[in-house]
Design brief:
It contains 2 helices and 8 strands. By secondary structure, it is an alpha+beta fold. The chain has one domain: Photosystem II Psb28 (Elongation Factor Tu (Ef-tu), domain 3, Beta Barrel). The strands form 2 sheets. It has a 4-stranded antiparallel β-sheet, with helices on one face. The chain has a 4-stranded antiparallel β-sheet with strand order 3-4-8-7.
Length: 122
């Protein structure tokens, strides 16, 4: 198996840097919800988002292969003096199957290790 640096892409060849990730479980249904936070999106720089399809697909790649995710929501959070400065982008999706959850967690451990991130609970 070849070693591949874990990556996150909204558009092929445009690599994003994850700022934070939140793992949640909906108490009523038990669904697992992942919220990925990005302080900056390469997909938005240079107006790439206007020349390609919208942020409706997320590609996670590591040594095991690719995970394609369709976000259930993408939220743009603005701030600053004028309220027009992009602070972060939250991208959320659900993982219902245990095998999908396990695969996603393997990806996250690899991504975290490659990017100096640590797991922590609030």
């Amino acid at each position: 198996m070849t070693s591949t640096t874990p990556s996150i892409q909204f558009f092929a060849g445009v690599f994003e840097e994850l700022s934070n990730v939140s793992l949640r479980r909906e108490t009523r249904t038990g669904k697992r919800i992942v919220v990925m936070q990005f302080e900056k999106l390469q997909a938005l720089s240079g107006f790439k988002s206007f020349t390609k399809q919208s942020l409706n697909s997320l590609l996670l790649t590591d040594e095991e292969g690719e995970i394609r995710v369709t976000p259930s929501g993408t939220k743009f959070i603005f701030g600053g003096d004028e309220g027009d400065e992009l602070k972060r982008v939250d991208c959320s999706f659900e993982l219902e199957r245990d095998d999908h959850w396990d695969r996603f967690m393997r990806f996250m451990y690899r991504y975290a290790e490659a990017n100096g991130m640590e797991y922590g609970e609030k």
